[in-house]
Amino acid sequence: xxxxxxxxxxxxxxxxxxxxxxxxxxxxxxxxxxxxxxxxxxxxxxxxxxxxxxxxxxxxxxxxxxxxxxxxxxxxxxxxxxxxxxxxxxxxxxxxxxxxxxxxxxxxxxxxxxxxxxxxxxxxxxxxxxxxxxxxxxxxxxxxxxxxxxxxxxxxxxxxxxxxxxxxxxxx
Length: 172
Prior knowledge:
Elements: E1 2-7, H1 13-19, E2 27-30, H2 39-51, E3 57-60, H3 64-70, E4 76-80, H4 82-93, H5 104-116, E5 120-126, H6 137-156, E6 159-164, E7 167-170
Parallel strand pairs: 1-5, 1-6, 2-3, 2-4, 4-5
Antiparallel strand pairs: 6-7
Helix pairs in contact: 3-5, 4-6, 5-6
């Protein structure tokens, strides 16, 4: 079973995704990079860490595709989130000023890994298509790329939820 949980900033998407997993062991794949010089970012990461049960295994700084490819039936995997994964991919490729679609091969690898993942999988991702058009090239690139990624991942998920104001809406 693959579930995609979309939502805007501070919508409650991560907390809702965590609640979907029950009380057993979970492999929590945290895709955000630490930024020690950014106290706000560090506080956000600390909040997420504090909310996780102690028995969950947290995987940070991992190759997400490899983690999904290595998961087996019976595993439970939570990925939080695809937007920060995409940000890291854009950073690592130096692609913030590149044409749309530059990361399409890497995104296709991720979609393939999601589709083939044998584990119970819950993916969290930002829904950014409901806001204003970003003023910067990099902002528009991110919005467009994460929108395309979300659509491709949703197509291979069994369940798709949109969280608004902490309330989940079932899209599929």
